[in-house]
Specification:
Number of strands: 10
Order of helices and strands: EEEHEHEHEHEHEHEHHEHHH
CATH superfamily: NADP-dependent oxidoreductase domain
Radius of gyration: 18 Å
CATH architecture: Alpha-Beta Barrel
Number of domains: 1
Number of helices: 11
Shape: globular
Strand content: 5-15%
CATH topology: TIM Barrel
């Protein structure tokens, strides 16, 4: 495993395990236990995933010392305010059964996210949060936040995969010292990514799958990846990307796959923004 050094000196694993769309408590708990047994130490959840308790149960049972784990969760839009963030962080800590979080992210730059971020800055200074950051911040939003924040975000978790590569966004993150982290590193299965001819052909040179090539491509760009699977064999395959290096020619071939936009979400669509605001995770 390789590590990213965040802008505050905290080490973050370059590959982690995501639990998006795994709401069933028993399934989620077992998946996290299997992931940790497979070598994952970064676990990524969120208040909106409705599975923090299951993740916490797995953390308690896994037998790995807390300091060896890197636990991330996120603030939902409903709580995007100064006071809301303070309460939400404590709620997540209680559900996870933890005294601190390694990384806490604003899930969407919506609502009073500047106020919410100020709350995170205070909790970071108190040591409750080892690192703070954001998700889904396009370049103009990230620049605005970085120019007004006291603590520059350590991470920006965004959609990054071979079909939506966001090179301009990566360049801005590098300028501000923000570590990129990829959600949806498999493009949620679009473009036949698991059997894509370009990725498959590259993988054959190394004895690797198209999925492993997609993950390796991202980490070679300095991007942290958090693939998700509830199947232990696939977890192990996703982790098996640290014994080969893609050539410059390979990287250039994958660069040609970029379509330049998301086919999963559209944050510029008012209907999508309204939907996110309407999604309530508590009364």
């Amino acid at each position: 495993m390789e590590f990213a050094m965040l802008n505050n000196g905290v080490k973050m694993p370059m590959e982690g395990f995501g639990v998006f769309q795994v709401p069933d408590p028993a399934v989620c708990e077992q998946a996290v236990l299997d992931a940790i047994a497979s070598g994952y130490r970064l676990i990524d959840t969120a208040a909106a995933y409705m599975n923090e308790e299951a993740v916490g149960a797995a953390i308690k049972k896994c037998g790995i010392p807390r300091e060896e784990l890197f636990i991330t969760t996120k603030l939902w839009v409903q709580d995007s305010s100064y006071e809301g963030a303070k309460k939400a962080v404590q709620t997540s800590l209680d559900k996870l059964g933890l005294e601190y979080l390694d990384l806490y992210l604003l899930h969407q730059p919506m609502g009073d996210y500047h106020g919410a971020y100020r709350a995170l800055e205070e909790l970071y200074k108190e040591g409750v949060l080892r690192a703070i950051g954001v998700c889904n911040c396009y370049p103009h939003v990230l620049a605005d936040l970085c120019e007004t924040a006291e603590v520059i975000p350590a991470v920006n978790q965004v959609e990054l995969h071979p079909f939506f590569q966001q090179e301009d966004a990566l360049a801005l993150m590098k300028e501000y010292g923000v570590c990129p982290e990829a959600w949806g590193p498999f493009a949620e299965g679009k473009h036949g990514i698991f059997t894509h001819p370009v990725l498959t052909a590259i993988g054959e040179k190394y004895g690797k799958s198209a999925a492993q090539v997609a993950l390796r491509w991202n980490v070679q760009r300095g991007v942290v990846v958090i693939p998700k699977s509830i199947h232990k064999d696939r977890m192990e395959q996703n982790m098996d990307i640290w014994d080969f290096t893609l050539s410059e020619e390979d990287m250039n071939e994958i660069a040609k796959l970029d379509i330049g936009h998301s086919e999963i979400v559209n944050h510029y669509d008012p209907a999508f923004v309204k939907m996110l605001h309407s999604m309530k995770i508590h009364s």
